[in-house]
Design brief:
By secondary structure, the protein is mainly beta. The protein contains four helices and 27 strands. The chain has an 18-stranded antiparallel barrel. A two-stranded antiparallel sheet has the order 11-12. It has a two-stranded antiparallel sheet with strand order 13-14. A hairpin with a 2-residue loop joins strand 19 (332-333) and strand 20 (336-337). The radius of gyration is 23 Å and the shape is globular.
């Protein structure tokens, strides 16, 4: 009995003896532009922390973690306020998280980890670029790839989200899973093959009423089975939900010059995509980090193509990426594209049974990024050329051509935080030249 009393008495002390960490960041941005709208890279892929019409943005981010002997508990909240958007104050992050050596479990909404030094136009993900606010849900994934041998390891992830914004199909649910094989040939060469799958399903449609959302329907969604979705007489049997996927092939190697990454993220809209009938659509990229970090820290080039869409053949083809006839809000959250930001979505178009706000799903994009540092200064440049062709149903002629340019120069002080100057210039064959500038300040504690 005494032993139990001692254990109960010492347990709170044991919990208090664990390592507690708290940190946070406050960031302020002020922007001016020659037109009402900001330059492209001022607001794109910012998780909507800066809107297209914003002149002022404030973000406050607070994180806490409690480390135990075999696991860690994390929690975070990030709030931002900005003008020029419908909801001036919103959460970015609000989550709790459990992690150990093999599992990372996240409940809530959390910003995705930025990769490739923030140079990528898509965050190396065709389907989730960081252009929209983080989605609320639950995600279970590998904290570290599961090693099968010294050569092979498995990465995995499984999630469930709710699209709780105002959309055509109310309360649309979102299924997610990924599976990856990592092959490490030696310390200088690694190949990653990863497949991810998203499916919008369930919810209430103004056309068809409450769509199927039971456990049996979820199984059909999970395995992309053909089944009835409306439950009406004469319904065409099809896959339940709106399915999207991609296959990432990433080859990383190191030589005397530095570290290289060559990658292709192949997009899958339907069966034709799984047969690669839409080749060469997708994301193609090369990333280089030199060993000599003087002035230049990393360089990136990406080519994005969404023009083929499995062609104009009868039956499978003309995929019209990110849109859907049932889930007519498509692959968006709060009217912001979730995936690559070069699918044009007109927020002024009222969505109904015939109208669609997707005005261009076919584009060819060349994107270049470079970043570096010297002394206490950090700098970054992005330059993007995009050619928008419209859709197969409504082509744009002559095509819309845009050249987006963006640059930052930051100075990090020893104690007072970081000061940044921003500049942007967008050129187009259909609109006036758009120039913008801004200043930013961030302080971390």
């Amino acid at each position: 009995m005494k032993a139990y009393v001692i254990i109960i008495f010492l347990l709170p002390l044991q919990l208090l003896s664990q390592e507690l960490g708290i940190d946070g960041t406050v960031e302020l941005k002020s922007i001016l532009a020659t037109e009402d709208e900001n330059p492209f890279w001022f607001h794109t892929n910012t998780n909507n922390s800066v809107g297209e019409l914003s002149n002022l943005s404030v973000t406050a981010d607070l994180k806490a973690n409690l480390t135990f002997s075999s696991f860690k508990l994390n929690a975070g909240v990030a709030i931002y306020g900005r003008d020029g958007v419908e909801d001036a104050i919103q959460r970015r992050d609000l989550y709790i998280q459990f992690e150990n050596s093999w599992l990372l479990a996240t409940l809530g909404a959390k910003k995705q980890t930025e990769v490739l030094d923030g140079l990528s136009a898509t965050n190396q993900n065709f389907l989730w670029s960081g252009n929209a606010r983080p989605l609320p849900g639950i995600l279970l994934e590998a904290n570290n790839p599961f090693k099968i041998s010294n050569t092979f390891a498995i990465d995995w992830g499984f999630g469930y989200y709710v699209l709780n914004d105002a959309r055509y199909v109310d309360n649309t649910q979102l299924h997610y899973k990924r599976l990856g094989l990592i092959t490490t040939f030696n310390e200088n060469h690694k190949l990653t093959l990863s497949v991810q799958h998203y499916a919008q399903w369930g919810g209430t449609s103004p056309d068809w009423g409450k769509l199927k959302s039971g456990f049996k329907d979820y199984v059909n969604v999970f395995f992309a089975h053909n089944a009835e979705e409306y439950g009406i007489e004469g319904e065409t049997i099809n896959k339940v939900g709106n399915h999207l996927g991609s296959i990432l092939i990433n080859y990383e190697f190191e030589n005397t010059w530095g570290n290289f990454s060559l990658y292709h993220d192949h997009y899958i809209e339907d069966g034709s995509g799984t047969r690669w009938a839409n080749f060469p659509d997708g994301l193609w990229g090369v990333y280089f980090k030199p060993k000599n970090q003087n002035i230049i820290s990393s360089v990136l080039y990406e080519y994005i193509d969404t023009v083929d869409q499995s062609g104009i053949s009868i039956g499978s083809g003309k995929d019209n990426y990110f849109s859907n006839s049932i889930y007519r809000s498509g692959w968006t959250y709060e009217e912001n594209i979730i995936g690559i930001p070069f699918i044009l979505f007109d927020k002024n178009v009222e969505i109904n049974g015939t109208n669609t706000p997707f005005i261009s799903t076919r584009s060819k994009v060349h994107h270049f990024g470079v970043t570096g540092k010297f002394n206490n200064f950090q700098w970054k440049l992005k330059s993007t050329y995009a050619n928008y062709l419209g859709t197969y149903g409504k082509p744009i002629y002559p095509t819309w051509k845009y050249w987006y340019n963006y640059g930052t120069l930051s100075y990090k002080t020893p104690k007072l935080g970081m000061f940044t100057i921003m500049a942007g210039a967008d050129f187009s064959n259909i609109s006036e030249t758009l120039l913008g500038g801004g200043i930013a300040y961030s302080y971390s504690f």
